[in-house]
Write a structure and sequence with these properties.
Keywords: Signal. The protein has about 170 residues and is of the alpha+beta class. The protein is about 30% helix and about 30% strand.
Amino acid sequence: MINVAILILHSLLAVLISNSTEPSTTIHCDENGCRGEYVGPEFIEGSDIAHQFSNSMSVAVGDELKEQYNNGHYVKVDFSKLKMSTKGMGSGNVTYALVIPFIEVPTKCEAYTSFDHCGGWNHSPALERRKRELSSVTLPDESLDISDLKTTPEGLEEYWIQWKNKALQGDCQ
């Protein structure tokens, strides 16, 4: 009898584990841009886990912009075609998807090789503060290229930011 009860409990535990929502993140980049998705809880122990996906994507996009530049393929992010979605926000399990496309530019000095974001859930992004924080990374007489505010129906607000990397594009002054 005890063995049957243990078997039943073991089976129930296996079902619970298989139905748990472990966070998952996928990011894929190529010469056309980056696409990615985070699926999981919005917050874990008070930390905004889902929004941290923006950080991961920013790093991946910046790395890909640099790789394309180093390969002689001059691109920048096409803000007009950037797509964000945050399905399930407020349910405890969100699917945050991003498509960040690139557009070719004619010369290496028109390319951008660094990328970041400024945003959050249900509050206005602190863009002026972020601009001050990034002011030291731009080339002299260059400015940050900042997207229009992108907002999902569920309340994620983001500005996306790109610029010429000083170390890589120093000859573009």
